[in-house]
Amino acid sequence: MIIFKRLDHILLSIPEGATAAARAFYTDVMGLTEMGGNHPGGAIWFVMADIQLHLREEAIGPLSARHPAFEVANLDEARQELTQKGVPISYSSDIDGRQRFFIRDPFGNRIEFLQYDG
Protein backbone atom coordinates (compact mmCIF):
# COMPACT_ATOMS: atom_id res chain seq x y z
CA MET A 1 0.00 0.00 0.00
CA ILE A 2 1.28 3.47 -0.89
CA ILE A 3 1.28 5.77 2.14
CA PHE A 4 0.61 9.31 0.90
CA LYS A 5 1.69 12.11 3.24
CA ARG A 6 0.85 15.29 1.34
CA LEU A 7 0.99 17.18 -1.92
CA ASP A 8 4.60 18.40 -2.09
CA HIS A 9 4.58 20.55 -5.22
CA ILE A 10 2.99 21.23 -8.58
CA LEU A 11 4.99 21.85 -11.76
CA LEU A 12 3.31 24.13 -14.29
CA SER A 13 4.61 24.60 -17.81
CA ILE A 14 5.28 28.02 -19.25
CA PRO A 15 6.12 28.90 -22.88
CA GLU A 16 9.74 28.90 -23.95
CA GLY A 17 11.37 32.27 -23.25
CA ALA A 18 8.78 33.22 -20.61
CA THR A 19 10.76 32.68 -17.40
CA ALA A 20 11.29 36.41 -16.71
CA ALA A 21 7.60 37.18 -17.26
CA ALA A 22 6.58 34.23 -15.07
CA ARG A 23 8.96 35.32 -12.32
CA ALA A 24 7.49 38.84 -12.40
CA PHE A 25 3.90 37.59 -12.32
CA TYR A 26 4.35 35.08 -9.51
CA THR A 27 6.41 37.44 -7.32
CA ASP A 28 4.85 40.85 -8.06
CA VAL A 29 1.23 39.91 -8.76
CA MET A 30 0.76 36.69 -6.78
CA GLY A 31 3.09 37.75 -3.94
CA LEU A 32 4.99 34.44 -3.76
CA THR A 33 8.54 34.10 -2.47
CA GLU A 34 11.00 32.55 -4.91
CA MET A 35 13.23 29.76 -3.65
CA GLY A 36 16.76 30.36 -4.89
CA GLY A 37 18.93 27.60 -6.27
CA ASN A 38 19.89 25.78 -9.41
CA HIS A 39 16.74 23.77 -10.08
CA PRO A 40 16.33 20.96 -12.66
CA GLY A 41 15.53 22.07 -16.20
CA GLY A 42 16.04 25.74 -15.40
CA ALA A 43 12.84 25.77 -13.33
CA ILE A 44 11.95 28.52 -10.92
CA TRP A 45 10.47 27.46 -7.57
CA PHE A 46 8.16 29.39 -5.26
CA VAL A 47 6.88 28.88 -1.73
CA MET A 48 3.09 28.62 -1.60
CA ALA A 49 1.82 27.93 1.95
CA ASP A 50 3.24 24.49 2.84
CA ILE A 51 3.78 23.37 -0.77
CA GLN A 52 5.95 24.55 -3.62
CA LEU A 53 5.01 25.81 -7.07
CA HIS A 54 7.55 24.99 -9.79
CA LEU A 55 7.50 26.66 -13.22
CA ARG A 56 9.54 25.44 -16.17
CA GLU A 57 9.70 26.36 -19.83
CA GLU A 58 8.37 23.62 -22.08
CA ALA A 59 7.79 23.30 -25.81
CA ILE A 60 4.32 22.14 -26.79
CA GLY A 61 4.29 18.38 -27.39
CA PRO A 62 2.18 15.28 -26.96
CA LEU A 63 3.34 14.51 -23.39
CA SER A 64 3.86 17.36 -20.96
CA ALA A 65 6.31 17.39 -18.05
CA ARG A 66 3.82 19.27 -15.83
CA HIS A 67 2.74 17.23 -12.83
CA PRO A 68 1.72 17.08 -9.19
CA ALA A 69 4.27 15.58 -6.81
CA PHE A 70 3.12 13.53 -3.85
CA GLU A 71 5.30 12.97 -0.82
CA VAL A 72 5.02 9.39 0.39
CA ALA A 73 6.27 7.67 3.53
CA ASN A 74 7.42 4.52 1.72
CA LEU A 75 8.96 5.34 -1.67
CA ASP A 76 10.63 1.96 -2.22
CA GLU A 77 7.44 0.09 -1.38
CA ALA A 78 5.40 2.43 -3.60
CA ARG A 79 7.80 1.79 -6.50
CA GLN A 80 7.61 -1.97 -5.95
CA GLU A 81 3.80 -1.97 -5.77
CA LEU A 82 3.41 0.10 -8.93
CA THR A 83 5.93 -2.07 -10.78
CA GLN A 84 4.10 -5.23 -9.71
CA LYS A 85 0.89 -3.73 -11.10
CA GLY A 86 2.57 -3.14 -14.47
CA VAL A 87 3.01 0.62 -14.18
CA PRO A 88 6.21 1.80 -15.93
CA ILE A 89 8.52 3.84 -13.70
CA SER A 90 10.73 6.63 -15.03
CA TYR A 91 13.39 8.80 -13.45
CA SER A 92 14.58 12.35 -13.92
CA SER A 93 17.38 14.53 -12.64
CA ASP A 94 18.50 14.17 -9.03
CA ILE A 95 17.43 16.72 -6.42
CA ASP A 96 19.49 16.99 -3.23
CA GLY A 97 17.67 15.81 -0.15
CA ARG A 98 15.00 13.72 -1.83
CA GLN A 99 14.52 10.54 -3.81
CA ARG A 100 11.88 10.41 -6.53
CA PHE A 101 10.38 8.67 -9.52
CA PHE A 102 7.61 9.32 -12.04
CA ILE A 103 4.72 7.44 -13.57
CA ARG A 104 2.11 8.32 -16.18
CA ASP A 105 -1.52 7.48 -15.61
CA PRO A 106 -3.50 5.80 -18.43
CA PHE A 107 -4.31 9.26 -19.82
CA GLY A 108 -0.71 10.48 -20.12
CA ASN A 109 -0.67 12.62 -16.97
CA ARG A 110 2.73 12.66 -15.29
CA ILE A 111 2.79 12.03 -11.52
CA GLU A 112 5.82 12.29 -9.25
CA PHE A 113 6.33 10.29 -6.06
CA LEU A 114 9.02 11.50 -3.66
CA GLN A 115 10.46 10.93 -0.24
CA TYR A 116 12.77 13.29 1.63
CA ASP A 117 16.09 11.90 2.89
CA GLY A 118 16.42 11.45 6.64
Total domain count: 1
CATH architecture level-2 label = Roll
Ends apart, CA distance between termini: 21 Å
Strand content: 35-45%
- Poorly predicted parts: none
User: Strand-and-helix sequence, N→C?
Assistant: EHEEEEHEE
Structural class: alpha/beta
Radius of gyration over all CA atoms, rounded? 15 Å
Helix content: 10-25%
Q: The biggest beta sheet, please?
A: 7 strands, mixed
The first-level CATH class name? Alpha Beta
The largest beta-sheet arranges its strands as: 2-3-4-1-5-7-6
Average of per-residue pLDDT values: 94
Features:
118 residues; 7 strands; VOC family protein; alpha/beta; VOC_core; Glyas_Fos-R_dOase_dom; 2,3-Dihydroxybiphenyl 1,2-Dioxygenase, domain 1; Glyas_Bleomycin-R_OHBP_Dase; 2 helices
